[in-house]
Amino acid sequence: MNDLRFPLHFTWGVATSAYQIEGAALEDGRGPSIWDTFCHTPGKIIDGASGDVACEHYHRLEEDLDLIRSLGVSAYRFSVSWPRVQPDGSGEFNERGLAFYDRLVDGLLARGLEAHVTLYHWDLPQALQDAGGWGTRETVQHFVRYAQTVATRLGDRVRSIATLNEPWCSAVLGHETGEHAPGLRDRALSRQVAHHLLLAHGMALQAMRASGVRAELGIVLNLNPAYAASDAPEDLRAATLFDGHFNRFYLDPLLRGHYPADILEDLGADAPRVQPGDLEIIRQPLDFLGINYYSRTLVSASGNARPEDAQYTDMGWEVYPDGLRDLLLRLDREYDLPPVFITENGAAYADRLEGGRVRDPERVAYLRAHLAAVRSALEAGVKVKGYFAWSLMDNFEWAWGYTKRFGLVYVDYATQRRVVKESGEWYGSLVRGLEPVG
Ligand code: IFM
User: Which GO terms describe its cellular component (predicted)?
Assistant: First the structure.
């Protein structure tokens, strides 16, 4: 039996984000973002690297678009760099930056590929951070203007526009643990930031719809299902709390119009300040929900557990494809779920270029197993419309710099040569309908 048959019009894509691949950090009027500042602060990035050059995608656009086409996929998910199109986040827009994304979208269309845009994949203009960043409501207003401008410019040629990528990461990694830009450590601030991000999403959706933007509009969440390590009441409670902070804190306001009561109680004085009307704004109808899934967490009251017999990726993340199926079924059961795109899924492994080839059977196995999970959720009736592998090519993996490789395409950073890995060939053959059985 072939467990990887998908509906005819299923969208097959690859994904990237601006700061991770573009480079050209100081060119054509781009302003600095919080990630430029963070990377250039000693000790923040494991290999001391930055996105200054990254994959030079900004200068290799045509070659990279040909590469996407050559893989055989039908869609490309990318993000717009806010500081490239509006250098200080609140003033003039930068025509040269906007023109780059025009060329990107037109280049995709010319190659028969769908464009899926993300407006915010973590690169806040530094000038806005200097004025308080996502901790202030002013940033929300600036985001709405930015979103409306980009969506009006590109919205007639792109299939979808997501407001935010993974607000949990911006809020928690950026403002509670300090692992990501802007590197702050303040739990109350992190939850206020989460609220402002969600509010920015809701207001931007309203503004884009009011401007007649035709693309499908939604948001992308990274969801991490929590499994209790045992049936002990304290482990069950710990898993519920983990799920609440990680998943429900974003799903509930977006899809139900309220924050989860148990998590507000757990936060106590660190709960966000919410103004009247905010939650109605956040709960906008979604044309789609983007889900990024990489792994699960096994939770116990004494700390997160690591199953010994499991396989792990180079990030140390457990390979757990059943978690994706369970997650999709649960969301479908518990929420009034809009159509779903799996907007990211993939794995880092320590790939090596040898004799002109990159053999990455673990990544093929990872993708195959997760696609089988998606297929099984589809069969159970969940409306999954497409799947994007993370990532098109190896790139700047945030605090891990260039030490982690997620690509279907290997990047030799010394020469910027791209080499399609065996997983890229496998994914292409699957997408073309030539998935070998057995
Ligand atoms: O590289 C990131 C991406 O930017 C957001 N989602 C997770 C990926 C892997 O860590």
Answer: cytosol
Check pLDDT > 60 for residue 438. no
Q: Strands 340-344 and 288-292: what pairing?
A: parallel
Task: For residue 161, list its beta bridge partners.
Answer: 117, 217
Q: Whose CA is nearest to atom 2 of ligand 1?
A: 397
Binding-site annotation: residue ranges for substrate? 20, 121, 165, 294, 390, 397-398
The 10s digit of each residue's pLDDT in 312-365 is 999 999 999 999 999 999 999 999 999 999 999 999 999 999 999 999 999 999
What is the pLDDT averaged over residues 388-406?
Answer: 99
Q: What are phi and psi of 375, to 5 degrees?
A: -60, -40
SS3 letters across 63-112: HHHHHHHHHCCCEEEEECCHHHHCCCCCCCCCHHHHHHHHHHHHHHHHCC
Intra-chain end-to-end CA distance of the chain, in Å: 9
219, 291, 292, 392, best to mutate for ligand 1 pocket (most atoms within 8 Å of CB): 292
Contacts of 144 (CB under 8 A, 6+ apart): 200, 203, 204, 207
User: Is the beta carbon of 176 within 6 A of some atom in ligand 1?
Assistant: no
pLDDT tens-digit map of 27-45: 999 999 999 999 999 999 9
pLDDT digits (tens, 9 = 90+) for 127-181: 999 999 999 999 999 999 999 999 999 999 999 999 999 999 999 999 999 999 9
Instruction: Specify whether the CB–CB gap between 187 and 244 falls below 8 A.
Output: no
d(C-alpha 9, C-alpha 217), whole Å:
19
> What is the rounded average pLDDT of the residues 99-105?
98
Any atom of ligand 1 within 6 Å of the Cβ of 35: no
Q: Which of 91, 85, 66 is nearest to 18 (CA)?
A: 85
Would you kindly state where each structural domain of the chain is located, as residue ranges? 11-433
What is the atom index within ligand 1 of the atom nearest the CA of 346?
Answer: 9
Active-site hit among 22, 176, 216, 344: 344
Active site residue 344: yes
- The model's confidence at residue 303, banded by pLDDT at 50, 70 and 90, is confident
The one-letter code for the residue type at 113 is L
Question: Is the CATH number 3.40.50.300 carried by domain 11-433?
Answer: no
- pLDDT at position 1 is 35
